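Quick review question:
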């Protein structure tokens, strides 16, 4: 006698009813559900996940693809995992470490129906290659994409960066340095364009040595400010950073070097994390958690049909003691 047969016999209900309880069908009364679940508990019955997935035609699992887990992506990851869980989905994290072959394992898993959908935090493979997997399931990205096949919930970083630039300009800072992130990122491209437009529109003093890409961490922020302060012809009097960690590094090293903040150097971060709040860093509020929720709703729309719930989002400047 199979486990389902035994549960059906002990409960007095059909195997079909037992199966509906296993599949969390709404077409079972609460009283019936409680009787069957109690018998399952008494028998220490553990459902076969693969069998349930086959019967449903879905795994109830969503993969998240990222190069690695860091402080910047944690709000997105945590929000996505929590939101997916509320809808009955588990999240599997695929970290590539920058290895394209390892990253593709996530997309192959979707092709083999091991996950129902994918959300991209960061990716290293050619976008056209990743787009070719859309026929196997929904793919949504937090990273900005040029492909129409992969919908993105990323916000235009141009807008957020311009907020920071205009805030500094309004405060009277005209020698503005930039600590940008990944050189090949569309987010970085948007921030660079914002700086170019601001420099032209507000007639800012521009020095190529004030702007750097590939700056992500606290330590890199510390190293960068030491370099900037040694530039011949005068250092910048303000810096706009890729994230709050870089801003924290800049701020801490500036204080060690007896540079007055914000009188001699203004510092603006990005993302408005707890770190910025704790250290009093002016930052651009980037609603990362809400972007993760939008990503999950897009995936559910593709899996279940219907209209995707998308919360309208915008950047906000949060002024603190560093400007």
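Suggested answer, residue by residue:
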């Amino acid at each position: 006698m199979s486990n389902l047969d035994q549960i059906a016999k002990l409960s007095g209900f059909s195997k079909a009813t037992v199966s509906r309880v296993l599949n969390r069908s709404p077409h079972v009364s609460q009283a019936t559900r409680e009787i069957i679940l109690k018998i399952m508990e008494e028998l220490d019955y553990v459902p076969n996940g693969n069998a349930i997935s086959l019967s449903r035609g879905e795994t109830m699992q969503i993969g998240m693809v990222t190069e690695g887990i860091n402080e910047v992506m944690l709000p997105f990851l945590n929000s996505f995992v929590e939101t997916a869980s509320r809808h009955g989905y588990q999240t599997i994290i695929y970290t590539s470490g920058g290895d394209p072959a390892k990253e593709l394992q996530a997309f192959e898993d979707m092709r083999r129906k091991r996950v129902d959908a994918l959300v991209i935090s960061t990716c290293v493979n050619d976008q056209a290659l990743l787009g070719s997997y859309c026929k196997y399931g929904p793919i949504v990205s937090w990273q900005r994409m040029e492909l129409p096949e992969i919908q993105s919930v990323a916000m235009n970083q141009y807008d957020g960066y311009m907020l920071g630039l205009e805030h500094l300009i309004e405060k009277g800072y005209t020698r503005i340095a930039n600590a940008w992130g990944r050189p090949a990122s569309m987010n970085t491209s948007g921030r660079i364009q914002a700086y170019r437009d601001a420099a032209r529109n507000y007639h800012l003093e521009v020095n190529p040595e004030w702007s750097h890409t590939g700056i992500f961490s606290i330590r890199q922020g510390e190293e960068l400010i030491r370099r900037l302060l040694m530039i011949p012809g005068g250092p910048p009097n303000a810096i706009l950073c890729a994230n709050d960690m870089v801003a924290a590094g800049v701020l801490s090293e500036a204080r060690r070097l007896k540079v007055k903040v914000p009188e001699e150097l203004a510092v603006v971060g990005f993302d408005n994390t707890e770190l910025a709040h704790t250290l009093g860093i002016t930052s651009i509020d980037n609603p990362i958690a809400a972007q993760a929720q939008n990503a999950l709703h897009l995936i559910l729309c593709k899996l279940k049909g219907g209209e995707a719930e998308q919360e309208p989002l915008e950047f906000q400047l949060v002024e603190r003691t560093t400007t």
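Why it works: The mean pLDDT is 91. The chain has 13 helices and eleven strands.
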